[in-house]
Amino acid sequence: MSVLAFDRPISPRVPLAWRNLVADKKRLFRSSAGIAFAVLLMLVQLGFERSFFDASLSAVRELDGDLFVMSASKYRFGTRDPFPHGELATMGKVSGIASAAPLYLDWQDFFWTSPVDNKPHLVRVFAFDPNAPPVFLLSGIADQQGSLKTNDTVLIDSRSRRFLGMDGDVTDAKLNGESVHVAGKFALGPDFMSDGTVVMNDRLFASFFRMNPVTMPVETAVIKLKPGEDVSAAQQRLIAELPLTLRVMTKAGIVEFERKFQADLSSAAPIFWLGALVGFVVGTLISYQIIYTDLSDRLPQYATLKGIGYENAYLIASVLRQALLTGIAGYIPAWLLCLLVYRVIAAIALLPLHMTPQLTLVSLALTLGMCVLAGTIAIRQVIAADPAEIF
Predict the structure, then answer these.
(1) Could you tell me the sign of the dihedral formed by the alpha carbons of 332, 335, 341, 343, in that order?
(2) Among 3, 230, 265, 338, which is 20 to 30 Å from 351 by CA?
(3) Mind listing the pLDDT tens digit for each residue in 26-39?
(4) Are 270 and 358 in contact (CB under 8 A)?
(5) Each residue of 244-263: pLDDT tens digit?
(6) Is 46 buried (19+), middle (13-18) or exposed (0-12) by CB count in 10 A?
(7) DSSP 8-class letter at 146
């Protein structure tokens, strides 16, 4: 008696959810397109929210100092609330302080006459003493600080919005109607409050306000410590010597100070999150319609499974797995398309709009969440399916 052996590979078991997903290619394409639309909407809104924070913090992150002193009543970096110039002398006497350089800022009083349309446009202005230690890390400002020693010279932001004309070949311009010479350029970029930035020395800044730079109120003092000094200890010494009307912060502290304002008090961030929520709701409705229609068409299949003994737990798990796979099928093309959308918007709006791992994970979680939610709502008809009634 002989035994016949067949060397035939055993196919791995294919999950029901995957079989149902790819059974109808046209339906899969339509489903992916519908979900991708909602995902793209969420990605764009979340991307704008992230670029809003990055643009708002760009100038603060470029400050070159160990400690920073501002008025205690100042609720954000980007607003005018100066303190007396005489406090700088007190800061310089504190042990461990190498320098206390004044930084002057303005967002409301300077108008740049654009060579593009010959019209005045509001710009942001930073000013400092060019003979003091650098107050900015940004290349184009720190390495060209010496060129600001002439009273009528300025540096301009080459990444300012194009209607300002700062990205062109500009050597002479008008600021508040006064002629200034452009000594160089730097690349900072605009934010949601300012279209462009001009940097000048403290004497030129004071002349626009008819003030003496020696007594002119200071917006922010940029403190640098002596080598080897502990930042926290120096901060405590400064706090002890300065009046309660002043706030002393580290570099991380001033960045967090500005970020917290934008997150908690600014109306822009909630608007973008509301847009993302709208995308989530739209995506949930689209996913529900897709999953509900698919379950209705396959109801006899699920009824048969129930009739041969499969429990509801298996069917529920299969439907939810299919919902997750549907979400992934829509997420991948949306993510790839969003890279192009970000690139186009960033080039037009000059905003730091780019994909990040955090943004990818958050948007993927929202996508899978909306699909699972839709599947959970639609699964009721599978649970209620009675094989005797269907057949």
Answers:
(1) negative
(2) 265
(3) 888 888 899 999 99
(4) no
(5) 999 999 999 999 999 888 87
(6) buried
(7) G
